Description:
Elements lengths: L1 H23 L13 H5 L3 E9 L6 E10 L4 E10 L2 E12 L4 E8 L6 E8 L4 E9 L6 E12 L2 E9 L5 E11 L2
Antiparallel strand pairs: 1-2, 1-10, 2-3, 3-4, 4-5, 5-6, 6-7, 7-8, 8-9, 9-10
Amino acid sequence: MKLAAVLVPVSVVALAAVLLAAQDEGGLPPMPRPGEAHKLLERKVGAWDCSMTMSGMPGENKARYEAKLDHGGLWLVGDYRGDFMGTPFSGHEIQGWSAEKGKYVSTWIDSWIDTPMHFEGDFDAASQTLSMWTEGKDMATRKPIKERHDTRFVDADTWVFSMNHPQPDGSYAAVMSITYTRAK
Length: 184
């Protein structure tokens, strides 16, 4: 046990030294750095008061979302905590830009699901909307569906998220909406 406590940190330092030396010699690609695409993620940084409504359900649910850029500024890490229909609810988001895919990517986990949701999507500058796609489940039938999650930036202090499900005519309709307002 004591040997492992010494060997693991030494191994990590040695690996880092080898990787840095290989990078300096042109053996490894350069380390990723935040770029233009990451500026979109900055818009979600901070503390936000949330008001959520669901299609067909009365009232609204309140929550708090707090997010920061982390891991060298490459990833937005956010936590959502509140109540949903009188039940405590929490969720965790990691969102970034994949230069390899040329798309925004995200992973979401929460207290109501036991399988992470993985997303890919694009930002439309004209509508100020980030549309992310994932394989989800229809809430009523539990059958697989392709969900679209939209984040529309209204201004520096407001953004609106919607979870959209496919309709019989092929269009998408919001089944849940959350308005995020910057906390004062």
